[in-house]
């Protein structure tokens, strides 16, 4: 005999959604068609919830990476066998600085898809875990040698960062002296490459050369992927915070002078009132 209440486990009511609260304006239809089609292998209600969490994660990943990670994690728990879901979880974890989780998700989605373009993120996650040697192992692997140009450039940048981590600053400079550095194209990766090269030059004391590359990076970086403009100001000795403090100090000095002047005037008035000659008059 089943215990009393045993039939409650067969309720047709769907389980209560887990994960962070979903914004009401998200429908799930915002996803690209190929991702929506991939989610069709899930049950109807579950597919809808996963889709909404994926949209929320994508919306937040550059604004609130931790919240984006929580949405991606909720989607992963419900649709972990879908490669697009694992990819979203990997990217959100990486952006949020959860490098161990990011690396695990990246390995999974690479295994599911056979796509080696995840290798740069995997290498940078190794750096985030304090393992620059492993990052360099990935950068010099035969799989990395077969990457297309955008992914290859990203891997070059990661590898240079790993060399910085190891104190190999001169080697980082040399590693970035590749033909792509002199590109005349409007490739989206050029700003990041130029910025990385400028950063490497600064690390070995070649500030004048670094400035030229920071100028190029700042002009090319129309999407704000780097802080090239800010670094350029720092290199030129422009620090707005100090200027602001100086202005505030000048205003304080002016106020102090005014107050001192008022006190002198008041003293003169008192002295005039106490003058005995005026009392005799």
UniProtKB/TrEMBL annotation:
Q: Where is the composition biased (Basic and acidic residues)?
A: 1-10
Q: Where is this region: Disordered?
A: 1-30, 219-281
**Superkingdom, natural source:** Bacteria
Point to the regions of Acidic residues compositional bias: 235-281
Name listed for the protein in its UniProt record: Tetratricopeptide (TPR) repeat protein
Give the species. Kineococcus aurantiacus
């Amino acid at each position: 005999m089943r215990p009393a209440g045993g039939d409650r486990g067969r309720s047709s009511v769907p389980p209560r959604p887990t994960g962070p609260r979903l914004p009401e304006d998200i429908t799930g239809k915002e996803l690209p068609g190929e991702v929506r089609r991939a989610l069709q292998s899930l049950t109807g209600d579950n597919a809808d919830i996963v889709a909404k969490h994926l949209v929320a994660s994508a919306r937040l990943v550059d604004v609130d990476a931790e919240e984006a990670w929580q949405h991606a994690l909720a989607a992963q728990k419900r649709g972990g066998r879908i490669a697009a879901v694992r990819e979203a979880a990997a990217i959100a974890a990486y952006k949020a600085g959860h490098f161990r989780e990011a690396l695990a998700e990246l390995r999974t989605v690479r295994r599911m898809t056979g796509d080696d373009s995840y290798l740069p993120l995997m290498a940078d996650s190794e750096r985030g875990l304090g393992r620059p040697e492993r990052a360099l192992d990935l950068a010099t692997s035969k799989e990395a040698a077969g990457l297309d140009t955008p992914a290859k450039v990203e891997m070059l940048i990661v590898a240079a960062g790993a060399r910085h981590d190891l104190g190999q600053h001169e080697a980082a400079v040399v590693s970035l002296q590749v033909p792509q550095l002199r590109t005349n194209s409007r490739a989206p990766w050029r700003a990041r490459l130029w910025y990385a090269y400028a950063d490497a030059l600064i690390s070995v004391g070649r500030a004048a050369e670094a400035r030229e590359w920071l100028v190029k990076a700042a002009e090319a970086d129309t999407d704000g992927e780097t802080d090239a403009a800010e670094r350029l100001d720092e290199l030129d000795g422009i620090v707005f915070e100090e200027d602001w403090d100086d202005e505030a100090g000048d205003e304080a000095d002016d106020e102090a002078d005014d107050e001192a002047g008022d006190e002198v005037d008041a003293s003169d008035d008192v002295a005039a009132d106490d003058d005995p000659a005026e009392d005799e008059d």
